[in-house]
Amino acid sequence: MSVNPLPAVESSSPETRNARGEWRPPYPIRYAPVFRWPLQLGAMLKWLVSNPGFMWPRNLVLLLIAGGSWYLTQPALPRCVHFEAGWIGQVYVRNLVLMWLYYGAYHLYLYTLRRQGTKGKYDARWPAQNSRQFLFGDQVYDNIFWTSGVALLVWTGYEVLTLWLYANHHIPYLDWARHPVWFVAWLFVIPFWRDFHFYWVHRFIHWKPIYHRVHYLHHKNVNPIPWSGMAMHPVETILYLSVGLIYWVVPSHPFHFIFTMQHAALGPAGSHHGFEGPIANGKWPTGSYFHYLHHRYFECNYGDSVIPFDRWFGTFRDGLPDGEGAKLAGEHRD
Ligand SMILES: [Zn+2]
Ligand SMILES: [Zn+2]
């Protein structure tokens, strides 16, 4: 797979960029201190509660969004016994609003208002315009179409179908009042399940026959923006969001399911915006250099930086500059 060479860009910021105009963090990527041997309990606990860490901001923010949207916008389960326009429309509009608020906020701040210019922007170029690669000749409109148009429908489809299954007692239901420990424990497990599922789906869609028909669409975004997050071929979106199918067999409350789906559908905004966090004058930890490197180099970093699948399977790239140590795994830099 070829990697488009990037043109040299004169940066408007005082930061150092390489000859291709790329900005790089001054450190190699590290994995979260979870899957290390011997166990480092102190480091694990610190990672759980630190800022940024496991809980704050990413998982807790998404949990708060799920909680708020559950109490304010979730149709009562008895209404979901039959497929009816009222509650289906309610779920669709709820997801549409969430998507535009979450993706839109990153896009507005970083790309429309350009509040921090190219400071910390991995690729100094702004989104492609007049490009035959993208629908409507425009990367932003293309990405919005796939994310807010197509992926939103798949996301909502999964939710509608699964809520109908819950309402008709076709899948196991967990009562939070009778099983409070399991209810809370599940919330901690969900981000790990997401990582596990994402890695294996992602490896599968990099299999050449699937890549060339399906995943190529997401990888048009060598220079990703927030809306690139769910800019996927519908087959990829169906596979990616199948993360929620676990609830068809594991006893869970519908809230676990809604949280998982929102985690998967909204989370990619933060991992695709193309800026090194923290942003907003150092106030908001966000971004994923780990996943940016996947978009830049394709055959590395398929997973995320919590479960070290890429290190275990030899596809980890830590981000050190070319020729100075950017190597595929085997190099345990954490
Ligand atoms: Zn990929
Ligand atoms: Zn991506």
**Structural shape:** globular
Mean pLDDT: 90
Helix content: 40-55%
How much strand?
under 5%
Profile the largest sheet: none
Q: Please give the number of β-strands.
A: 0
In terms of per-residue confidence, which ranges show pLDDT below 50 for 5 or more consecutive residues? Answer: 1-13, 323-334
Task: Please tell me about this protein's structure.
37% of the residues are buried. The protein starts with 40 loop residues before the first helix and ends in a 22-residue tail after the last helix. The chain has one domain. Residues 1-13 and 323-334 have low confidence and may be disordered. The protein is globular, with a radius of gyration of 20 Å. The chain is built from 11 helices and no strands. The longest helix has 29 residues, at 139-167. It has 334 residues and is an all-alpha fold. One zinc ion is lined by residues 202, 206, 215, 219, 294. One zinc ion (ZN) binds at residues 202, 206, 215, 219, 294.
Topology:
Layout: H1 41-49, H2 55-73, H3 85-112, H4 139-167, H5 180-205, H6 208-213, H7 234-240, H8 254-266, H9 268-272, H10 289-297, H11 309-312
Helix pairs in contact: 2-8, 3-4, 4-8, 5-8
The structure holds zinc ion (2 copies).
What's the short version?
The chain is an all-alpha fold. Helix content is 46%, strand content 0%.
